[in-house]
Amino acid sequence: MTILPPFGPVPPAVLVPSYDRPAVRPGIAHLSVGNFHRAHQAVYLDRVLARPGNAQWGILGIGVMDDTHERAKAEAMQAQHGLYTLTECPADAPDTVRVIGAIVDYLHAPDDRAAAIRRLADPAIRIVSLTVTEGGYYIDESGQFQLDHPTIAEDLARPVPHTVFGLATEALRLRRAAGTGPFTILSCDNLPHNGHVARTAFLAWARARDPDLADWMAAHVTFPNTMVDRITPAVGPLDITRLNAGSGVDDRVPVFCEDFIQWVIEDKFCAGRPPLQDAGVLFTGDVTPYEQVKLRMLNASHSMLALPGMLMGYRVVSDIMHNPDVVALLEHYLARDAEPLLQAPPGMELHEYAAQLLRRFSNVAISDQLPRIASDSASKLPVFVRATAEGTLARGTDAARIAFLLACFAEYLRGHDDTGAAYDIHEPHLAPGDMALAADEDPARALEMSVFAGWGLGDHPAFVALFAQTRAALRAGGTRACLRQLVTPGEPG
Ligand code: CS2
Fold first, then answer.
1. Boundaries of each Mannitol dehydrogenase C-terminal domain copy (predicted)?
2. Could you identify the atom of ligand 1 that is nearest to the CA of residue 40?
């Protein structure tokens, strides 16, 4: 038994940090500490800290959202001194449980935002990373930062801002005044060119606040693009009990995930970086092919599972992977729709990547949740599916699978599955009026929803007709029958 305060005794099978944790100081501040951060970036930093000479690269976790869930997480992380268990679940081998020690300090910004800004201004902080979700960058369909969005407009008027853009900008103001130099802003969200998107958002916020400071940021702050990957399910109360029973540790905030992990980063760090290459990170001059493959194959497949799956009554990813029609849908989508528009990154083979995805989704040990993936589809579909939809329509190839997915999204918004069972919809970024468009008696009007703005779908009357027919088929015969038609060779979808 290892005694690891404040966990107390930790069973020998649980791996614990091998390094001198009290000597570790934060060099990275992470904004918005979700499960994904704790299962992904924190794991790489844990590996970095396990090697000698890297004690300056601990993580300061900063909670940003002012809600009870975030506050409870902050209290638990503080009570546990930043420690938590991560259970990694391979498909065909026993789970591994490790205590991750990389988060050495944690603060909840809404408690004292000025203090959070001062911590970011500490010269020891050389990277500010963030995971704020696809919709968290306030970028519209033409790639502009939404300065007139109420959340942003309100924040710009506050002396002490609340948003990640404001916290980082005000910290950079202090650093410039003190001559301590910039930090790198490192987006770890699922967006193409997430560094460019972050740059657009942070600089636009700063420019609206203080053009002179924005110029300084534009000249000094770097925003590397990154591709991140690790399937990390949500953790509910039953999971906590199950995970703690498995680990033998009494952890208030355990996390679990698959055993696959990948991080590809552009090497553009204005204030230095940890030797992440020693921890398995791939550095490259151009992340584009990696992120495109990941977003358009993995994440789009996830949406392709989640939206039809919710309607068919499935709630668990590995369960729906037993449905041969669903597997055929994914295989066809990947091979016929997504792959022809992609370029394989060096050393990668797209068919093999697709086959590996199907194996990852089938992993019963993680039993990932379809509601998690379906949530915020209004932000996800433009990121994961738009390019494939546009490419398919431009090439004039079969758009039936895309019409099916978008039609399932519109039907999903009705809030109940084909058996009538209700589910919760979490769509914080749907614009007012979108729900009415989805429910309009003319099924094609759903294509006017804000989520499809800029896709140009209305310029393709054949697609609009196909979409309307697919919705009619979903309503008339149910999702399973509609899918069966779509994947059965010889029968038009
Ligand atoms: C999922 C992702 O939320 C989603 O839509 O596709 O969270 C996915 O699990 C991760 O990107 C995997 O790296």
1. 286-471
2. 13
Q: Name the closest-CA residue to atom 2, ligand 1.
A: 299
Contacts 24+ apart (CB under 8 A), 151-155: 152/205, 155/205
pLDDT value of position 490:
53
The ipTM is: 0.98
Looking at ligand 1, which atom is closest to the CA of residue 228?
A: 13
| Span 115-127, pLDDT tens digits | 999 999 999 999 9
The candidate with the shortest Cα–Cα distance to 451, out of 467, 438, 441, is 438
Position 144 scores a pLDDT of 96
The pLDDT value recorded for residue 4 is 83
Q: Ligand 1 centre and the CA of 195: distance in Å?
A: 18
Chunk the chain into consecutive blocks of 10 residues (it has 493) and report each block's average pLDDT, rounded to whole numbers: 81 95 98 98 98 98 97 97 98 97 98 98 98 95 95 98 98 98 98 97 98 98 98 97 96 98 98 98 97 98 98 98 98 98 96 98 96 97 98 98 98 97 96 94 97 96 98 98 88 41
Q: How far is the CA of 146 from the centre of ligand 1 (A)?
A: 24
Q: Which residues contact 245 (CB under 8 A, 6 or more apart)?
A: none
